[in-house]
Amino acid sequence: MPMDRGSTRAQGAAPVPPYCDHCGEPAAGGHAACATARELEPPRFCPDCRRRMKVQVVPTGWTATCVEHGTRHG
Amino acid sequence: MPQILDRARARVLDGGAGLDQAEILEILRLPDEDLPELLQLAHDVRMKWCGPEVEVEGIVSLKTGGCPEDCHFCSQSGLFASPVRAVWLDIPSLVKAAEQTAATGASEFCIVAAVRGPDQRLMDQMREGVKAIKEAVDIQVAASLGMLTQEQVDDLVDMGVHRYNHNLETCKSHFPNVVTTHSWEERWSTLTMVRESGMEVCCGGILGMGETIEQRAEFAAQLAELDPHEVPLNFLNPRPGTPFSDRPVVEGKDALRAIAAFRLAMPRTILRYAGGREITLGDLGTREGLLGGINAVIVGNYLTTLGRPATADLELLQDLKMPVKSLSATF
Questions:
Q1: Which of B291, B297, B289 has its CA nearest to residue B256?
Q2: Cross-referenced Pfam families, in alphabetical order (chain B) (predicted)?
C-alpha cells in the first residue's frame, strides 16, 4: 500500500534517491537547473522509480502521488 | 517629459479615459530612462480611479491536465509531452483550499479546470463544490472552465458564481500562432455571454509568447474594448514539453512597461498580477508593479507551479500601505 511521505526527511538518514524528481533522469551527474526550477515547481517524477506522479497544487501547498511509492507533500 | 506622457496625464489621469492602440504602442516604445515616470503615472491613475485597495485571490485547479486543446504555452494540454498528469480535486479538498485562501484575507477564490469547455460531470462537480464552499467559507467564488454554452452560463449564475475568467490570451492577430484547436472569436463569444448574464468578466492573457510590441498594444486595445471587470496579466513561464518551452522570459523592464501600458489603456479595471511574475520580475519587481498600476494579486501557488508565499505578498502590501480589499467591499 502506498505510504504518505512528507517532503522533509531526517538529515543523514535517507539515501540519495536514484532519480531527479523534476526531469525524471538519473540523479547522478548534477541537476542544478532542475533544483532551481524546483524552487517554483512541485516534483513531477517519483525520485524512487521515475514514474510520473499525480500532482495536485493548491494555494498553500502541493501533493504528489506515485502509485508505487505513495504521496509526498510540500 | 515625452509628449505621450503629457497626453496620458490629461486623458487618463484627469479624464479617466483609456489610451487608444497607437498611444499604447507609444508607451510600450518609451526608453528605459522614462520608465520611472511612466510607472508613477500608472500608479497615480490606479490610485485615482481604483483606490489604494488590492484585491487578493487564490486559484485552484479542480481538473488538472489532459486538456484536448493545444494552447502552446500550457503544460496541461494532453497533446504535448508535458510531465503534468491528469488529476481531479475532490470536494473536501476544494473546500479546504477555499478555507486556506480565505485565511490569507483573500476575497476571491477561483476554481479552474483544464478543459475545452465543461461537460456534465464537471458542471455537477462545480455545483456541488460551489455549494459546499458557500456553506463553509465566506469568500466570493469565481470560475474558469473554458468555453461555455448559454445553458452553462445560466447554470453558473444559478450556482452563485459571481465572476468568470476566460482569457483571450493574446491579441487576435497573434492567436493562431498560440492556439489552433479553437479560435479567438469562440473565446470572445463566451465572454459576450458571460457579460450579458450579469457575471463579472475576467479576461486577460500572457505576455512573452512571441508577440511583437505592436501586437502587445493591439492586445491591450482589444481588452479595453471588451472592458472586463478584471484583467489578469501573466508573463510566460516556459513549460517543459510545450511548444513554447524555449521562449525567452520577458525582460523585467518590458514587463513593467507593459503593466503601465495596460493600466493606461484601462484605468478602472482590476489589473491583477498572475503567473510568471516570480521569474520575470522577482521580489523587487513585484513591488515595482504594485507601484506601477497593479491593484490585485494571486496569492500563493498557481495551477501547476508555485508562487511566492502568501505571507510575502501580504507583508509587501502592508509595507506599501495598500489595504487588502475586504469581502464586504466587493458587494
A1: B289
A2: BATS, Radical_SAM
Whether residue B325 lies inside any domain: the answer is no
- Contact: B93, A56; criterion CB under 8 Å: yes
pLDDT digits (tens, 9 = 90+) for B279-304: 999 877 889 999 999 999 999 999 99
Residues in chain B with pLDDT < 70? 327-331
Per the domain annotation, does A50 fall within a domain? Answer: yes
In a domain, A9, yes or no: no
The answer to whether B278 contacts chain A (CB < 8 Å) is yes
Domain housing B183:
31-319
Would you tell me the crossing angle of helices B252-265 and B282-290 to the nearest 10 degrees?
20
pLDDT score at B223: 98
pLDDT of residue A10: 46
Those residues whose C-beta lies under 8 Å from the C-beta of residue A40, and which sit 6 or more positions away, are: B278, B279, B305, B306, B307
B252-265 vs B35-49: helix axis angle to the nearest 10?
A: 40
Question: Strands (DSSP E) along B78-209, which ranges?
Answer: 87-88, 108-113, 140-144, 163-165, 200-202, 205-207
Which is it for strands A61-66 and A54-58: parallel, antiparallel or unpaired? Answer: antiparallel
- C-alpha pair distances (Å), A29 with each of A13, A17, A45: 22, 13, 17
CA angle B173, B73, B64 (to 5 degrees): 130
The response to whether B127 counts as a known ligand-binding position is no
Residues in chain A with CB shorter than 8 Å from the CB of B90 are none
Q: What is the ipTM of this complex?
A: 0.86
Residue B45 sits in a domain whose CATH number is 3.20.20.70
The response to whether B171 counts as a known ligand-binding position is: no
Whether A12 shows a pLDDT value over 60: the answer reads no
Domain assignment of residue A59, given as a range: 17-73
Asked whether residue A47 is domain-assigned, the answer is yes
The Cα A62–Cα B6 span in angstroms is: 48
Give the three cell numbers for residue B176.
493562431
As for how many domains chain A has, the answer is 1
Each residue's pLDDT tens digit, B91-142: 999 999 999 999 999 999 999 999 999 999 999 999 999 999 999 999 999 9
Scan residues 56-75 of B and list those with Cβ closer than 8 Å to A: 58-61, 64
> pLDDT at position B37, please?
98
